[in-house]
Amino acid sequence: MAKDEDKIIGDLTSSDYKYGFTTDIEMEFIPKGLNEDIVRLISQKKNEPEFLLEYRLKAYKKWLTMEMPDWGHLNIPEIDFNEIIFYAAPKKKKELESLDEVDPELLDTFNKLGISLEEQKALSGVAVDAVIDSVSVKTTFSDTLAKQGIIFMSFSEAVQEHPELIKKYLGSVVPIGDNYFTALNSAVFSDGSFCYIPKGVRCPVELSTYFRINAANTGQFERTLIVADEGSYVSYLEGCTAPQRDENQLHAAIVEIITHKDAEVKYSTVQNWYPGNKEGKGGIFNFVTKRGLCEGDNSKISWTQVETGSAITWKYPSCILKGNHSVAEFYSVAVTNNFQQADTGSKMIHLGKNTKSTIISKGISAGKSHNSYRGLVKINSSAENSRNFSQCDSLLMGDRCGAHTFPYIETNNPSSIVEHEATTSKISEEQLFYCQQRGISNEKAIGLIVNGYAKEVLNQLPMEFAAEAQKLLSISLEGSVG
Amino acid sequence: MKTKEIAINLKNELLNQFEQHFDVFASANSDFVKDRRRKAAKIFKEIGFPSRNLESWRKTDLTKVLSKDYALNLSSKLEKNNIHDFFSCEINQFDTDLYTQVNGWCVEKQESPKVYENGCIVGSIKAAMHQYPELFEKHYGKYVTNEKNGLIALNSAIFSDGYFIYIPDGVDQDRTLQMVNIINSKKHEFVNARNLVILGKNARLKLVHCDDSIEFKNSLINSVTEVFIDSGAKLDYYKLQNKDEEAVILTNTFFHQEADSSLMSNTLILNGGLVRNDINVLLNGRGANADVVGLYLVDGKQFVDNHIYIDHAVSNCTSNTTFKGIADDEARSVFNGHVLVRQDAQQTLAFQNNHNIQLTNTSKIDTHPFLEIYADDVKCSHGATVGQLDKEALFYIMQRGICERNAKMLLMLAFVGEIVNKISLPTVQEYSHDLVTRRLKGELSACDQCSIECADPDKPLVFEIDMSKV
Amino acid sequence: MLSIKNLHVSINGKEIIKALDLEVNAGEVHAIMGPNGTGKSTLAAVIAGREIFEVTEGEILFEGKNLLEMPIEDRARAGVFLGFQYPIEIPGVSMTNFMRTAIDEIREYRGEKPMTAGEFLKYMKEKQKLVELQSKLSGRSVNEGFSGGEKKKNEIFQMAMLEPKLSFLDETDSGLDIDALRVVANGVNKLKSPDNATVVITHYQRLLDYIVPDFVHIMYNGRIVKTGDKDLALVLEEKGYDWIKKELGEELN
Questions:
Q1: Domains in chain C, start-ordered, CATH in brackets?
Q2: Size of interface B-C (CB pairs under 8 A)
Q3: Is A13 inside any structural domain?
């Protein structure tokens, strides 16, 4: 462990955004801009069944009637949707049979990302689905998983192989018209991951998806759908990176989770999209809708997120607690530095009896950034004996940043209890002095204190992810004090 | 009719009246005020009544309120000498200087404002703007921080009357001032009252503001109160809202605080059909302190929405917001707290709390405690809860032989005690405690408070045992 | 006074008390002893009317009345007092107000006229002296910020104030130092009369040095497995609960 920490500290003094490389892979693009023909073209390229084309067209029509949401504590520049390429895929030379046949450049990309597929496969037993510019490149481990009846494959493959499941669950948690970006995604999504855990199966490995935006001027619109059947369990990891570019790039994804009776899904994200440079130029616009439905009794969904990247983050992983005794959790650390803006939080909608939700949110703002927690806790009149506890803490570093808390609590049931607490603090001089007096540099002390502050959330992450997250926290805050 | 049309109809009707009767509205007004009225009317024409499309009005629906046929009371018809025929203050032995407004007009309006020996000036704002133009013009309209609010614009355009209070530098006004706002009319009154309170440097004032109604007629009160608290001054401001269940009260209060000044604002909402209070505090001088507390008890189909906005503009100020509420039947309460700590407001201490008890599943409680912070060396926290009476505590009390109803009552009184106990005027505190107790027991309606016939001072109160006085 | 026959109690479907019988007469002091989790506190709670427990079988008669049919407060008014193991804090409710309200209601229930404020004050002072409770505690909110000892003394003070016929003192001795223990025990002894009865629930024999019981019951696994006089407590102290288990085991075999 001491060695790990040394490495973290070492990385602290290294480069700024270490994932900012681009990869020269032969790509296939479609014309930029968005119209009905583009939607049809995407569907056609993917050889989709009729129902999916109709779904896309319906979404497109809906999108045309909608407007960008403006209620976030965010300053979003106008996005010209006609300048965006809505589909870019690594050009396939032929069908890939094994990892050996994957474009070596691509493999190299994953190595740079620190997720050598081979290595992952061999060492940590994590099944990885890698998505570059919206197209799933290779899913490892699917054969092993298939033996247990677990389906883990790219969304496009699933459309071909399990259309009945896609038809049943797609859009069942996040409807097309939920918001501007869900309508957009539903019209143009290109790929993503699909995961189905059959009844009573405990998925033996952690499933993981890595998303990367590579090509310039492309948007990434992936779609993740996870279905956990009765009594099943899965832990799912999501990581994101993007190259450094001067222009902003758009990422508008949808994640849907359904847990049936007694099932549990744990969804962890380490989001490290390119945040823009120190002057606030470039970076990803991250407008994501993530929502889980605790459909069955005693089901559980747990969101954990470490958000360090993106120029703008607009994201509220939510849960609908429909089943009686269902449980939902949201653990979040969001770091903003330089000119980053984040408006993130969660929504917990209690419908079932004896449902329980927890929100732990830790915001850290530095530089000239703005970091807002925004969350809704709604207790429906049917949700007898429901409980929610929310704690939203903010840590400010420097006097040019902002930390805001916007909780919305709406209750309709007298047998429920909702509690919300929030505090705002800075790293105290005394803490820093104490560390320094023991010989620890300011920068390292901050890393320590920040990680301690975020520990409650970091502890929720699977081991190897936690180490990466710790590292990211320190790097993100580099140079924020001095 | 659609919401939008309703609002536009009433807006046009009011603007017509404004044009037609401008001379009446602005009678005896200086050019300064006339100019302000016209400008405000222009803004109101542009933006109209607030609709639910606005984030801050999302929960307050004025459709029903605005669809009534209102009468604007263009002049006062009541004389001072007959006020006691139907109103007497119930606060026993409460030694205050009482000023009364009926249907939005100061009863004292024909007179010049009263000038105390210590230099304090208290009276009708309509008279004051005429008599003390310099003082009036120096402060009037200066502390309204939100001009793009249709209700405020409307008030500024057509306000009838209101109270004017001036406490000179260094004066400790030892007489508590009590402002009582009564509605007594056979028509749906639309009252636009405007109040201005000025505290000079190191001045002291205790002010009790009561909204009462007598006749059970739907009325709409749209009041704007501006309060300037100069450096080192101290104001205790108590607001008691106890209107009938059809009454609509919309208030906007602006407190502007200079260095080392201190404010205690305590709002007790006991009855009212639809109550919307916007309390804005600007902490504009170092060392200023604001305590903004309140209590709302809602039942039936009542609706209460409190918006508390605390702006820490400079460093070293403290603020403490605490609101508590109990919702019964089909009532609905909203709390919207917003603490803004600006970039240079280092060393800020800001605390915000909202606690609610929900008694039925047909009642609805919304709470939005917001923090917006741009300075790092600050201590800010907020807490909000919605729950019910502690079942363990209930069992404990009942085990001692107290019936469930009274056990609940005890717990509810304990819950609201925190707010009532913050009232520093003993008589008002006692009176408020009594009102709250009766309100919780369902014995208090709006009428028994203010008309002599209904009040029963001899009625024993089970929980009023102050052993220190035995 | 109290007659419990074949009492069965469950919580969430789990049976905690199984076929328990107990007779308590006026003027008697009973002690119920037993290891943790054997249902002692449950018994006290059921007698007081705690709703989370479900009586599945059996009856509890108090002075001939069916206690199980009475609401919590009526049981208290009829003279059943429970000294809580963990007294609840009620912020904002002063002790004085709390007791005054309780006494008024109990008197009304019994058809007695209410005390005047003066009488009440005098009465309260008297009782405070009896349990050596500092008068400043009565001005504070119920149990709020009280130390463990103060909370327990406060329970005895309330018992003195309400003059119950039957008092169940649930682990009143736990967490007390020897001085506090003596004060609590003295209070109980002073309140003893031919007309009332006390049941103390305790872990240790220690309390019984101060409160001498007429009967000692040993409770194990939801039943009273052994009853004797005060000497039984001494035997138990000496041989420990394992002795009971062993004896029981032999019986079962």
A1: 2-252 (3.40.50.300)
A2: 85
A3: yes
